[in-house]
Write a structure and sequence with these properties.
Elements lengths: L8 E3 L2 E3 L6 E5 L7 H13 L4 E5 L3 H13 L4 E4 L4 H9 L4 E3 L8 H14 L3 E6 L5 H7 L4 H17 L5 E6 L3 H14 L4 E3 L7 H17 L5 E2 L10 H11 L8 E4 L11 H11 L7 E5 L5 H5 L4 E5 L3 E6 L2 E7 L3 H11 L1
Parallel strand pairs: 3-4, 3-10, 4-5, 5-6, 6-7, 7-8, 8-9, 9-10, 11-12, 12-13
Antiparallel strand pairs: 1-2, 13-14, 14-15
Length: 349
């Protein structure tokens, strides 16, 4: 699926925009100054498919920790900074790959110039993040409520500051907790700017509410070719975010080497304890980088027919199931052996 054409912005060894790739990112939820905890969290996120990671920078201790963190991770690092340009300079000095800071909120033009000069010298891009809940007072009063037009107006102010300093390595985001407003804002942004777009629904809530809101908003945008990098925000561990975004990108035909899990919802015909097996397979497949379909089916009515289209499948019966590979029945498996057999088959696929 072709993406809308935008500028290319390099972040470490990644390129945002100018291609058909959508980069997966997340954000650490532990204080950045606790460098080892941050490193541990990032390494776990790398294993399940995170390609770009952001950390908060709230004080100089956080900024100084950037150097240590960078030495132990394998994906580009973004520093999230608000208001204090000195923190941006410190993060840049310590090797960060990208900063998230709104140039209109860091004081005088001289402060902005210092940050831009440092970014230019090290080829570090800037993300301008527009959130519907924190628009400038005059914009909020002008429109009376958060609107896509108001969000674009806010972004234009920040963009014009950077462009006046001959800086164009910019990424934009237009986030809201309202998925419909997200759709409107990002569509308008794609018509207004040629910068890469970071997609996200902010404050999306729990795993369930975030998956629904994000799929509604971001799925629509992705299918329209909009978006160059994506974060799905979930309350709690960032490890919850990556499986959702991978599934969304896979289903939008924007990500390869991601397994597909097919599992029936169960009904009164199901005569085995299917849920633990499905949950185990779902978790295990997060670490597998292969294009494959695994089907776990509950009964003999729909099971064999659905399972024959999968690479590896279980069609359940009473306390047991048939192992089916590429449509061929291989053998019967007692329920207590299913996980072990599935692991073996997935590993050798």
């Amino acid at each position: 699926m072709k993406r809308n054409q935008t500028r290319s912005v390099r972040v470490g060894d990644l390129v945002l925009g100018g291609n058909d790739e959508v980069i997966i990112q997340s954000m650490c939820n532990v204080p950045t100054k606790n460098a080892q905890a941050v490193i541990d969290q990032i390494l776990e996120l790398e294993k399940i498919g995170c390609q770009l990671i952001r950390v908060s920078c709230m004080d100089m201790e956080d900024a100084k920790a950037i150097k240590t963190i960078k030495e132990h991770i394998h994906i580009p690092l973004v520093a999230d900074i608000h208001f204090d340009y000195k923190l941006a300079l410190a993060c840049i000095e310590n090797g960060v790959d990208k900063i998230r800071i709104n140039p209109g909120n860091i004081g005088s033009r001289a402060n902005v110039e210092k940050v831009v000069e440092a970014c230019k010298a090290r080829h570090i891009p800037i993300r301008i993040g527009i959130n519907s809940g924190s628009l400038e007072k005059d914009i909020h009063e002008k429109y009376g409520k958060p609107t896509a037009e108001g969000m674009i107006e806010s972004a234009r102010r920040h963009v014009e500051i950077l462009e006046s300093l001959d800086f164009y390595d910019t990424v934009l985001s237009f986030k809201s907790s309202d998925p419909i407003l997200c759709i409107e804002a990002y569509k308008l942004a794609s018509e207004t700017f040629d910068y890469p777009l970071h997609l996200g629904v902010t404050e999306a809530g729990t795993t369930m509410t975030s998956a629904i809101k994000s799929s509604l908003a971001l799925g629509n945008l992705l299918l329209d070719g909009i978006g160059n990098t994506i974060r799905i925000s979930v309350n709690g561990s960032p490890a919850k975010e990556i499986p959702i975004v991978k599934e969304l990108l896979k289903d939008c035909k924007l990500l390869k080497n991601v397994p597909d899990l097919v599992a029936c919802p169960t009904c009164g015909r199901t005569q085995w304890d299917m849920e633990p097996v499905v949950n185990w397979v779902e978790d295990y497949l997060q670490q597998i980088n292969k294009t494959m379909t695994v089907a776990i089916m509950g009964c003999a009515v729909n099971g064999p027919g659905e399972a024959k289209h999968a690479d590896i499948a279980i069609a359940g019966g009473k306390d047991e199931g048939l192992l089916i590979k590429k449509g061929q029945v291989i053998k019967k498996i007692p329920q207590d052996q299913m996980i072990a057999v599935l692991k073996e088959e997935i590993d050798k696929f």
